[in-house]
Amino acid sequence: MRPIALITGASSGIGYASALTLAPTFDLILCGRNQEKLAELGQKIKQKNPETKHHTLIFDVRDKQSVFEQIEGLEKPWKNISLLVNNAGNAHGLAPFDSADLEDLETMILGNVMGLIYVSKAVVPLMVQNKNGHIINISSTAGKQAYAQGMPHLMYNLQILP
After folding, report:
1. Of 53, 67, 69, 113, which one's alpha carbon is 20 to 30 angstroms from that of 150?
2. For residues 79 and 126, is the Cβ–Cβ distance under 8 A?
3. For residue 10, what is the DSSP state?
4. Rounded-to-integer distance, Cα 143 and Cα 29, Å
């Protein structure tokens, strides 16, 4: 087998593009919540890169138990992961911080922070065992630059007036 890359959030956006970009060089583990979109991506990869093998895992990175079960349940050849692309993430709501829905905030923290931690904690021991591995963590530009109604902007620029 060729080197293996595991990509979260592979059903759309940057994760989808990452899979297509890596397909000529890597066999792929495509992870996401949308089985239909991942199947379409798998077909596209197969058409463009017939030598590329791919495996699909359906889970939400916010679900710690599912993340660990799916990754631990990989067949032995697929556990030789040499590249992890932590890409899954989300943004919810555009309300000002003081009126933002607490569930939206929790969903973002679970997906954007804890999801990355869960997947990394499941994959890193395999990389250590294989003595090989690289991790790419993809983050929103919101982590570096505030935008109107974005959480970093709201949290850092919230002014309490008398």
Report:
1. 67
2. yes
3. T
4. 27
